[in-house]
Amino acid sequence: MVAIRHGAPVKGHDLALLDYDGAARYLCTTPRHVRELWAKRHLAAIEVGRSVRFRRRILTALLRLIASRLFAESRRRWWW
């Protein structure tokens, strides 16, 4: 069993779970925006009772998706 301290990443494991505030800091946005993304089902989460937690791996995948779309859009716009 691997122990987790306060959402700290464990080497070799992706067990870090973040709350709304932590996810907002990781995505450089507001907790309200993270709640909206989750409510619209654009962001996967783990629900434990009334608590909602986000995996860091999922947040990183979201950032990569946004970056790839922005890159593709910029190439379409400037490189005909």
List the helices and strands and how they pair.
Elements: E1 17-18, H1 20-27, H2 31-39, E2 46-48, E3 51-55, H3 56-78
Antiparallel strand pairs: 1-3, 2-3
Helix pairs in contact: 1-2
Structure summary:
The protein is α+β, with helices and mostly antiparallel strands and 80 residues long. The chain contains three helices and three strands, in the order βααββα.
**Average pLDDT rating:** 81
Shape verdict: elongated
Radius of gyration: 15 Å
Counting DSSP E segments of at least 2 residues, the number of strands comes to: 3
The number of domains? 1
The protein's oligomeric status is single chain
**Alpha-carbon distance between the termini?**
53 Å
Q: Which range does the strand content fall in?
A: 5-15%
